[in-house]
């Protein structure tokens, strides 16, 4: 098989790239190792920056997002037993976020691609990218028990953190930056109406907790837990009790979460990680294949979208005008945004979580930082701007 752009990985990055290229008249093939139902059920992100929602609309994937997505105008920070709201529109000239699950974004993009796009192969596992620095790169993959090759003009590795594409960048030419945090998240999905209208990020002496949602009837909740925690040690009752304790408000001492059946439970490590550069010859890396941010800033999916928007525009300029300038600028353009998001995600993470041997002094500093944000002014405006995201045009 031969195509213009071979896309390894059918997560949000790969699927959206295929859509954007299709709309620009550039053909592509997406190779996804998992089956469709697995790809559509994998629980992950929930928050779309305004620019991300706008891109999905432009790509034709906006109808259900606009019907079912929940527009949020702010978040709550909870610390020292008190609640403080950070408003987004008033600090950002009207910017907001949309709560719409990654599972739904993926379903919408898959349906579009299968309806009128280029080939999207499920159960197609890429084994290697070869000839990245030649004029004729190719992807070796297996599909339906057979070894196959996909010959391309360009290969894009959208195959996530555990993918194989970046292995085609010689070690001597890449640098990896990494931070592992000394705590993890226990995440649950529960059939229970969200207890609050907005997301709540809670700092507490018992550790961080986050209340998010998936729909008016489904809650998504997270608790900071020690690294190495086994989800089996957290029966449902223990989780709800701990959530009640970490979200407790002095003004409403008896308030409890509405409990419901817990349908998913898993432990997620927290890390920051970037590989540079995001290009080698005719191979480009996008999304989690090139960078991971800790989820406290809700940036991972949004960064994946920003990467492929920049890349799709650059490929358009190449195919329409023969101009390589935007392709040459791709890695630098994306990495500037990646490191800003990395910085924001790190500061949210370290301000809100409790280190295993944290001193009372450090806790006081965290509370002072949170108090600065809660007081409004520049600190609140900065959080609102970072959370709702940079406009895509400034990086395109
Ligand atoms: P994905 O989603 O990992 O997709 C990669 C795809 O590649 C496939 N694949 C292969 N296919 C063929 N051949 C191979 N050899 C392959 N190897 C892998 C995989 O099956 C998969 O389908 O990467 P992508 O597209 O870059 O998307 C990135 C996002 O998934 C990720 O950044 C976010 O989920 C991060 N994230 C969040 N991001 C946000 O913007 N807002 C949030 O609120 C948010 N919350 C989260 C998150 C991530 C979380 N976890 C699980 C770490 C919350 C959590 C709990
Ligand atoms: C989620 O809804 O899964 C979610 C929301 C905000 C975050 C992380 C995850 O910061």
Task: Provide a descriptive summary of the structure in words.
- The chain is built from eleven helices and 19 strands.
- The model has no long low-confidence stretch (mean pLDDT 96).
- With 396 residues, it is α+β, with helices and mostly antiparallel strands.
- Strands 1, 2, 8, 9, 10, 11, 17 and 18 form an eight-stranded mixed β-sheet that branches.
- The chain has a domain at 2-70 and 99-179 and 271-355: FAD/NAD(P)-binding domain (3-Layer(bba) Sandwich).
- The longest helix has 28 residues, at 325-352.
- α1 packs parallel to α6 (102-116), α1 (12-23) runs parallel beside α8 and α8 runs antiparallel to α9.
- Helices cover 35% and strands 30% of the residues.
- The radius of gyration is 21 Å and the shape is globular.
- The structure holds 8-demethyl-8-dimethylamino-flavin-adenine-dinucleotide and P-hydroxybenzoic acid (PHB).
- 8-demethyl-8-dimethylamino-flavin-adenine-dinucleotide (RFL) binds at residues 8-14, 31-34, 39, 44-47, 102, 125-126, 158-160, 163-164, 187, 268, 287-288, 295, 298-302, 304.
- Residues 45-47, 199, 212, 220, 295-296, 298 line the site of P-hydroxybenzoic acid (PHB).
């Amino acid at each position: 098989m031969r195509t213009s752009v071979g896309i390894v990985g059918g997560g949000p990055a790969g699927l959206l790239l295929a859509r954007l290229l299709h709309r620009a008249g550039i053909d592509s093939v997406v190779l996804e190792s998992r089956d469709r139902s697995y790809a559509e059920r994998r629980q992950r992100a929930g928050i779309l920056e305004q620019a991300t929602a706008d891109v999905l609309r432009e790509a034709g994937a906006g109808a259900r997002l606009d019907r079912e997505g929940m527009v949020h105008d702010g978040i709550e920070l909870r610390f020292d037993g008190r609640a403080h709201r950070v408003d987004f529109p008033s600090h950002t000239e009207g910017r907001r976020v949309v709560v719409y699950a990654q599972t739904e974004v993926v379903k919408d993009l898959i349906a579009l691609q299968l309806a009128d796009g280029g080939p999207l192969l499920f159960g197609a596992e890429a084994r290697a990218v070869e000839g990245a620095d030649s004029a004729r790169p190719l992807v070796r993959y297996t599909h339906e028990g057979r070894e196959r090759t996909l010959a391309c003009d360009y290969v894009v590795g959208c195959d996530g953190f555990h993918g194989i594409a970046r292995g085609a960048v010689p070690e001597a030419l890449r640098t990896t930056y990494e931070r592992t945090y000394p705590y993890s998240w226990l995440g649950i999905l529960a059939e229970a109406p969200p207890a609050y209208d907005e997301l709540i990020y809670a700092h507490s002496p018992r550790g961080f907790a986050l209340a998010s949602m998936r729909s008016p009837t489904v809650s998504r909740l997270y608790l900071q837990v020690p690294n190495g925690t086994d989800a089996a040690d957290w029966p449902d009752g223990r989780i709800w009790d701990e959530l009640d304790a970490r979200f407790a408000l002095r003004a409403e001492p008896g308030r409890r979460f509405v409990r419901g059946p817990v349908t998913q439970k898993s432990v997620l490590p927290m890390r920051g990680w970037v590989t540079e550069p995001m290009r080698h010859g005719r191979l480009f890396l996008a999304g989690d294949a090139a960078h991971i941010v800790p989820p406290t800033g809700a940036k991972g999916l949004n960064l994946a979208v920003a990467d492929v928007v920049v890349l799709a525009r650059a490929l358009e300029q190449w195919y329409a005008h023969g101009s390589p300038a935007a392709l040459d600028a791709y890695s630098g353009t994306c990495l500037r945004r990646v490191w800003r998001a990395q910085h924001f995600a790190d500061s949210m993470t370290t301000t809100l979580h409790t280190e295993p041997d944290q001193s009372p002094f450090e806790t006081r500093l965290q509370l002072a930082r949170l108090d600065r944000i809660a007081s409004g002014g520049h600190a609140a405006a900065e959080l609102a701007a970072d959370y709702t995201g940079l406009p895509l045009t400034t990086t395109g």
